[in-house]
Amino acid sequence: MAEEDLKKAEERIIDLFVGVNSDFGNDAVCARLVSLIFLSPEEVSMESLVSSTGYSPSTICNKTRMLVEAGVLKKVGKPGTKKIFFSMEKDMKKVILGAFRKILKVKVAPIKDGLPERIAEYKKYIKKSDKDSMEKLKIVENYLMDINVIEKKMAEFIKSLEAN
Prior knowledge:
Elements: H1 2-23, H2 28-39, E1 44-45, H3 46-53, H4 57-69, E2 74-76, E3 85-87, H5 92-125, H6 131-163
Antiparallel strand pairs: 1-3, 2-3
Helix pairs in contact: 1-2, 2-4, 5-6
């Protein structure tokens, strides 16, 4: 009975992690795989993922490949076996730092670098009497200001996490 209760308690933890991962845009299969691998103290084999989830080997293969390409999982080889294993970073501080750095690089930097020039170009062609274009300009300028604030706050947050 205690073993069964332990399994139920573990499944509740996994369900919570699956829900959180799903909220961040992972589909249910990816969310479950990430949750199982995160909670595993050792690398997890492809075969183990198939047996513990009930998903087909091709589904596991496709989803793990996608998660490896995204940098969420690491593919691990073990000497003396041809089996494929997966692991992931367990230190949530490192995970969060990596995610924030990626957001800065992939989402914030292109806007910060490319939008000022586009705003300047847009300004050359609009007339102050064109209310619709002026409103659009205001929206885009406010967006750029917000991006600058976000970049500054994220950089401060990264520094504070690195210091601890």
